[in-house]
Amino acid sequence: MTTANDAAAPGGAATWGRLETALRGRRSAGGKCLVPYVTGGLGDDWLETICAAAGAGADAIEIGVPFSDPVMDGTVIQKANDRALSEGATPQSILAAVRAAVADIGVPTAVMTYVNIAHHMGYERFASSLAEAGVSGCILPDLPLEEVGEWAERADAAGVETVLLAAPTAPDERLPRICARSRGFVYGVGLMGITGVRSELAASATRTAARLKAVTDRPVLVGVGVGTPAQAAEVCEVADGAVVGSAIVTRMLEGAGPEGVAALVAEFRAALDGAHS
Amino acid sequence: MTEPAESAPAGDFMDEPVAAATGSFMDEPVAAATGSFMGEPSAEGRFGEFGGMFVPETLVPACQELDRAFRSAWADPDFRNELDRLLRDYAGRPSPLTECENLSEQLGVRILLKREDLNHTGSHKINNVLGQALLAQRMGKTSLVAETGAGQHGVATATAAALFGMDCVVYMGTVDIARQELNVFRMRLLGAEVRAAETGSCTLKDAVNETMRHWVAVADTTHYCLGSVMGPHPYPWMVREFQRVVGEEARRQCAEILDGGMPDVVTAAVGGGSNAAGIFAGFANTPAELVGVEPAGGAAIGRSVPGIVHGSRSYLMQDEWGQVLEAESISAGLDYPGVGPEHSHLAATGRATYEQVTDTEVIEAFSLLSRTEGIIPALECAHALAWVSRARSELAGRTVLLNLSGRGDKDVDQMMGILG
Fold first, then answer.
1. Quick check: A69 and B205 CB within 8 A?
2. Could you tell me the pTM of the whole model?
């Protein structure tokens, strides 16, 4: 397991990718980062939804590439996955659409999918496909630290930032290794569970953010169980930002369209700005 | 690959050759050319290029805890003795080896059946479940959660939970719930809660997804009692070790029946592959041919495309984009698009071969064993018999050991609909 090449080491800015540069920029300006998640290929207007979310104050967009067996996802994102797949979404169709719209999106993007999608295409080819589509980062939640090396090497070579997740139950010695190998940001998992909106923010969300902040200079964003603007503001009392998935995708599934999603993103933006401006 | 010192086993595996990479401390030389099979995986949980621990970070601590606990327990004579006692006094081991005179005469192949169907709960699943329940208790867990396909593993888990006084939740696909009603009732009778997996194909693979989603939130109190030699490390290795008893017993029993000889061929059905792994483990380092039999509609090895799902890298049925395909077979227990990683390794190295049989052949084999020997087999192991029947001219005059992994009671209702 190679974890030596920490981009936070001296040399810094030159090695940060577009995603990390954007998030650090928001933080330096005294703001909190907002990264909404949109399921790629869901409905006819998912791409417009991404653009609208970017326009409503997102710092970056996480684009879900649907997988048949999303073990880390709850019912909302499962349903979105299934629907997008039944509508014919493929990694290729999603990346081709993103590539054509990079200028309109305007903020960095990160693809979130499961490792078999990358493995089946071949790590090298998948990494270069992301780069060619103008995608900055990649999140593969079923690729933990011990297994990430083979992929991360190719992603690094292609200039794709591999975002690693950190669990609330990770022992202290593991966190610095995760932060060192992560690129773009470190994704603190808000709770021990799967994606989905909860009535309250779990105590583990801010605790995990604090533990990560103590060991890294890289932006620390928390996702999973961050479902309302108030919860996002709460976790951002400690974290540098929040990833919001199921709440956004619920709106998409309800047929709110790009405008409806943009309105929700704007609420999150306002909550983060209000808490920390 | 190097292995951390603390994970080096201290002579805890009985007369089992160890893979060269992990260092051998046994008297038996490690055969470099042909390789040594079914020993300990690498520290990363690899069998050759297969296996690993491909789970979200949230599950890594639980898998690592399990790895440590299993290594410690398996090296502890008290644990081994207690498990042996349970297998003997509760599950009814050793299971007999039955020589099938009528069937042998009819097919022209000498057939020996390892009678896992005679175990308590009706299949080999109890071997693994008693091991894991005992381990869970040792780890201080108070609940078990499990996935099930045909319901045999769910019933076995519910049984062990009742015995150990643990809570039990079993996930089962809605399609399987419909075709295995009796096992659903059995699990409930035993005090387990059966939850429907309603996503995807609504069969075993989806039940595994739901179980993993459940486990991640409750891993501090709950052990995931996985039913086959699949999933993230240490499961493929641990489950095979808990099933090894099948192969070890069969080897001794064969030696008695065959005057110190060995069967020419050892065969078993393969879905995830635990019953095959158990019986193969007793013969992997003998000259016996090993033949796994997959359903044609769930032939992960038959297609030989590697993929990563449910925690490990192995052969996997998938489409051109890497979406996992739905397996389709008459047997709910084999309706799984993947296969245990060690089977992929055995296939890739040529140590074992894997054949595919159709549902029609399976139905014929199911009837054949019932009529000739008075043994109604589970549809799963009827796959292995279907292959023997089809290959009888090549197997003529040879001795075949077949793992009869379960009894067919659970399938009688379904077969009544097919055979009338």
1. yes
2. 0.93
